From TrEMBL, chain A:
This is Succinate dehydrogenase, cytochrome b556 subunit. It comes from Arthrobacter echini. The gene is sdhC. The keyword Thylakoid does not apply. Gene3D superfamilies: Fumarate reductase/succinate dehydrogenase, transmembrane subunit (1.20.1300.10). One of its GO terms (biological process) is tricarboxylic acid cycle. Belongs to the cytochrome b560 family.
TrEMBL record, chain B:
It comes from Arthrobacter echini. Keywords: Heme, Iron, Membrane, Metal-binding, Transmembrane, Transmembrane helix. GO terms for molecular function: metal ion binding. The keyword Transmembrane helix applies. It comes from the Bacteria. The lineage of its organism: Bacteria, Bacillati, Actinomycetota, Actinomycetes, Micrococcales. Its main location: membrane. This is Succinate dehydrogenase.
Length: 127, 155
């Protein structure tokens, strides 16, 4: 078996700092692609009320409802972690508390997502 | 015996080859960095309100239809709200993707192509969205047939 020389891995420093950065990038890309689609679907109001209603109806089925849950989860994380990034950059003690702030972000995100999930699933499944 | 003098690193007399400020990029990257933070803070407020009004209050997603949009855009405030959100979110997202392309696309030509596609998509979406917000008609007449929605004037 021939051994090819590979880099020792692409882990920078790991832990909260790097993983929150990775999550911020992934959620950012997801949100951006949704945004492109969202402007296109909303633009159908300029075609006809029927065209808009037909496409929006697809957002109301259960599978899309779960997709919306994922989208909101990405948005809420990106928003809270974005505030954390601003604090790290502009608040004097930000860099020192960046770990604690990430766990606050995760905790706050969980609380918001539990509340939103209950409300949204009631709308989607007609509660 | 004369001691050789070594300039302090920040004496200001930097050899031209080492100068970092004479690049043609100017301080674009710093402006972009600042823009991400300012627009990000605004977008949190704009989008959380957007989600509250469209997904949480009332009937949530099941209440969204053409009439819902017409009701919102009857108010100038919501048109300005959505227009601001469109522009800020698209520029914030485009700059984010630009940074990601610069980070991961190693070939110059790949970077150029990807960014070309990105900027084209951004221009199309921003122009389209802006036109839709400005030209929206809650009671459109399509093929000579007027809308029969309850909020439209009877013809």
């Amino acid at each position: 078996m021939s051994k090819t020389l590979v880099p020792a891995g692409t882990l920078y420093r790991g832990r909260e700092g790097q993983w929150s950065w990775v999550a911020h990038r992934i959620t950012g890309v997801v949100i951006f692609f949704f945004l492109l689609v969202h402007v296109l679907d909303t633009s159908l109001v300029r075609v006809s009320p029927e065209a808009y209603d037909a496409v929006i109806a697809s957002y109301k089925n259960p599978i899309m409802g779960l997709g919306e849950l994922g989208l909101v989860a990405a948005i809420v994380f990106h928003a809270f972690n974005g505030i954390r990034v601003i604090l790290v950059d502009f608040w004097k003690k930000g860099p020192r508390y960046h770990r604690q702030m990430l766990w606050s972000v995760v905790g706050l995100w969980a609380v918001v997502m539990i509340a939103f999930s209950i409300r949204h699933l009631m709308h989607v499944f007609g509660g | 015996m004369a001691t050789p003098t070594i300039e302090s690193p920040r004496s200001g007399r930097v050899a031209p080859g080492y100068s970092r400020s004479s690049t043609s990029r100017g301080n674009f990257e710093m402006i972009a960095w600042l823009f991400m933070r300012l627009s990000g803070a605004l977008l949190v407020v704009l989008i959380f309100t957007h989600l509250w009004v469209n997904l949480i209050s009332g009937d949530g997603i099941s209440g969204v239809d053409f009439g819902f949009v017409a009701g919102k855009w009857a108010s100038t405030l919501w048109r300005i709200w959505d227009l601001t959100m469109l522009w800020l979110a698209m520029l914030h997202g485009t700059n984010g993707i630009r940074v990601i392309i610069n980070d991961y696309a190693e070939k110059s030509s790949t970077r150029m192509w990807l960014k070309g596609v990105l900027y084209t998509a951004t221009a199309v979406i921003v122009v389209l969205g802006t036109l839709v917000i400005f030209t929206f008609d809650p009671c459109p007449v399509i093929d000579g047939v007027a809308s029969t929605a309850s909020y439209c004037p009877a013809v």
